[in-house]
Design brief:
The chain is of the alpha+beta class. Helix content is 29%, strand content 22%.
């Protein structure tokens, strides 16, 4: 949302914003750490290019691959970007520091702006409001136009969504629990009618939710929380009955600083185990149903209440339809940008070409040996790459999320511990350079740099491999827009893409 449309905007953000809103004194649910996934999420900010208008700036944690910059420039996106990593070489592959992009930016002013676009006077449009925004803005002369951080934190809490549902007279607002004893009591009540969910007040997609299906599971969680409470942690969770869903969907709207609520889009969602998988455009019949059942009127009410509570800006409401046909209009409130809002931006871009697409992603295991330049060249050779001139194709949305765990880095500022030696005009994230240099036809890439120098290389843990040994495989994620006129065309594209990935030794994990 461009609240001040006549000024340059700066887009940047850290996608798992909930981690920065969460009080460190809160008790947590059991979870296995996944450093590879955390590194991928940290690199997702490159997807924000979809918001950029001519003259806007985009700062990302890791500098965007020059090859990708050339690709999106062909599509009409020309953001001014940072040519150096905000991390300044502080991170090894797969190990992400806890600092948000705003904290990193605030600490980089001593560089005198080398490798950074002109930011003074830009209006910040963040993925989400986080700590250290004000310090970064002061250091770089950035204009802020957002609510206070405490307001942003308040309206993003699961307990706020629950209280709002209750005030609007909606069913299943859930139980807000503040002790392990509360969890035990409310959990046993819910189990009488079926299973239930325990939600962290600032849980994020795929984390901070537990599906409790038995008293044995409940007892183990209660014991786990009892131990934390005795160490001084505060228990604060939301317990809700588990509902058999038919379809996840979300509504995106923007609240102006005058309180006006502008509904932007509705997107169907495909999720896997509470984690985001893809966004799709709903059909007209579904939108008519939402209108008929008062869904959009309710969204206006939610927006007005958020504004009364001091919030303005981007909002995404998670909703779903249930088996049996009922509508569950509010699952939770995300007062920030969202993947579905990125999908809306891409929808707007494609609508100008009378095209439509699906935002999706592939989690992939690979060794980084296929560079991003080779990836685009290969897709183009197979007739798969979307160029803006074809009526269908695969539109890659970034390179960093694919290579962040395999050590493939380009530019001056590589991940610490990796020995790649790109040429002065290096182009590709990813590992070895092929024997012959590949130029992406129609993209105008400069010559790629070489990593095939015979030197020993570190694996994902920073350990050295012997020269010529098999490269370690890591997890990456390829975000893309599938541009297709029909479901049949989309299926055909998907089949060809997955065959291409398999032929190039990228193993699909999701």
């Amino acid at each position: 949302m461009n609240a001040i449309p006549n000024q340059r905007h700066l887009y940047m953000g850290t996608f798992e914003a909930e981690a920065y809103w969460r009080d460190a004194q809160l008790a947590s649910l059991p979870a296995l750490p996944d450093r590879a996934s955390s590194a991928i999420v940290a690199a997702m900010d490159e997807l924000l290019f979809s918001f950029c208008q001519p003259g806007d700036a985009l700062l990302t944690r890791y500098a965007i691959s020059p090859v990708h910059r050339q690709y999106i420039a062909q599509l009409g996106f020309h953001p001014a970007v940072n040519e150096r990593d905000l991390t300044d070489g502080m991170e090894r592959a797969g190990n992400v520091s806890s600092a948000s992009v705003f904290e990193l930016l605030g600490s980089r002013k001593a560089d005198a702006g080398e490798g950074f676009p002109q930011l003074e006077g830009c209006v910040l449009s963040p993925f989400a409001g986080l700590p250290h925004v004000e310090e970064a803005a002061r250091a770089w002369g950035i204009t802020l136009h957002q609510p206070p951080l405490e307001t942003i934190r308040k309206v993003n809490a699961k307990t706020y969504s629950s209280d709002l549902k209750r005030s609007l007279g909606l069913r299943n607002p859930g139980y807000i629990v503040t002790s392990f004893a509360d969890v035990a009591e409310a959990g046993r009540k819910l189990l009488r009618d079926g299973s239930f969910l325990i939600k962290d007040d600032f849980g994020v997609s795929g984390k901070g939710n537990l599906h409790i299906t038995s008293t044995q599971m409940l007892d183990r969680i209660v014991s786990y929380l009892r131990g934390q409470e005795r160490k001084g942690k505060q228990v604060l969770f939301l317990l809700e009955p588990f509902q058999e869903k038919e379809q996840d969907f979300s509504c995106q709207f923007a609240i102006g600083d005058d309180g006006n609520v502008n509904i932007l889009s509705v997107q169907w969602l495909a999720n896997t185990q509470f984690s985001y998988r893809e966004s799709l455009s709903p059909d007209g019949a579904f939108l008519e149903r939402l209108e008929r059942e008062g869904y959009f009127s309710l969204m206006q009410d939610v927006g007005r209440q958020l504004y009364q509570d001091g919030y303005y800006g981007d909002v995404c409401i998670d909703s779903m339809t249930l088996r049996g046909g009922k509508l569950e209009p509010i699952i939770e409130i995300n007062a920030r940008k969202s993947m579905s809002l990125i999908k809306h931006q891409l929808d707007t871009f494609l609508a100008g070409k009378n095209m439509r697409g699906t935002l999706t992603n592939y989690s992939l295991s690979h060794d980084g040996s296929l560079s991003y330049e080779e990836l685009l060249e290969g897709l183009k050779g197979e007739g798969l790459l979307f160029t803006g001139e074809r009526e269908e194709g695969v539109m890659p949305l970034g390179a960093n999320t694919l290579y962040v765990n395999t050590g493939g880095r380009d530019g001056e500022n590589k991940i610490v511990g990796h020995t790649s030696t790109p040429s002065r005009n290096a182009t590709g994230r990813g590992g070895r350079s092929p024997a012959k240099q590949i130029r992406v036809s129609g993209i105008g890439a400069s010559d790629g740099g070489s990593e095939g120098n015979g030197m020993a290389k570190p694996d994902l843990n920073g350990n050295k491999e012997t020269a010529g040994s098999e490269r370690a495989r890591g997890k990456g994620r390829l975000y893309l827009e599938l541009v297709a006129a029909s479901d049949e065309d989309k299926m055909r594209l998907t089949t060809k893409l997955e065959r291409f990935l398999a032929e190039h030794h990228l193993t699909v994990l999701n």
